[in-house]
Amino acid sequence: MPVIAPWPASRPTTQLPSQSRDADGAMAAGTTVDHLTETYRAHYRSLLGLAALLLDDTASCEDVVQEAFIRVHSARNRVREPEKTLAYLRQTVVNLSRSTLRRRILGLKLLSKPMPDMASAEEGAYARIEQDELKKALRKLQRRQREVLVLRYFADMTEAQVAEVLGISLGSVKAYGSRGIAALRVAMEAPA
Q: Per the structure, how many domains does the chain have?
């Protein structure tokens, strides 16, 4: 790993962007923009290959390599040995790839998982169609059969409660209920 000089305590305002001062106040050589441009042209593909070994998609690899060049560019004045710029870039690509993988893993852990009983859009549409068909079939039943089935199965009443509400005997509730279910079965199975 290349040695990087610490940030100077204070920068003189007359200092050139590609130069920095060392601890003695003398001008220290840093990686120049031209050197970084040459490094980019010569090694972009190899760094992209390095990222591809660590990551699984091209877009992420390109992002990591671009970010590595941006970071080296902004720290170019702190690189004491410009010939080690490529090593610094490689290490930055590896570190950024690790960070990308960590973020992905964390994202997967934090993703809310769908409820197992959640219906898909298609299932919801089919359920709606079936409900509409059931309503149409219920409308075709005799009035008492429809009343018994609605109170018994949709209002969740017992047979005794249905008999009381409708003012009919318990035997009549059972008879209307069984005939209504049979008629519904026939109506639901018949082609539309």
A: 2
